[in-house]
Amino acid sequence: MSPRFDAIGLVVSDMAASVTFYRRLGFAFPEGAEREPHAEAALPGGLRLLLDTEET
User: Residue 1: exposed, middle, or buried by beta-carbon count in 10 A (0-12, 13-18, 19+)?
Assistant: First the structure.
């Protein structure tokens, strides 16, 4: 099995503000993601955008 680029991970200090920002750009985060320490949105081509709080 060969390695595959699967995700882009970002550490954020304010999850609610970050989810709101990326939703405005068209990323589909699930409802309630702004209250979680980890959130994911699917990107074209099978990639995922991962947001994690500094505490996580």
Answer: exposed
Contact partners, residue 55, CB within 8 Å, separation at least 6: 37
Interval 12-36: pLDDT, tens: 999 999 999 999 999 999 999 999 9
CA dist 18 and 6 (Å) reads 21
In the block, tokens 């709101």 appear at 20
Question: What are residue 25's phi and psi, to 5 degrees?
Answer: -85, -5
User: Is the model's pLDDT at 1 over the cut of 90?
Assistant: no
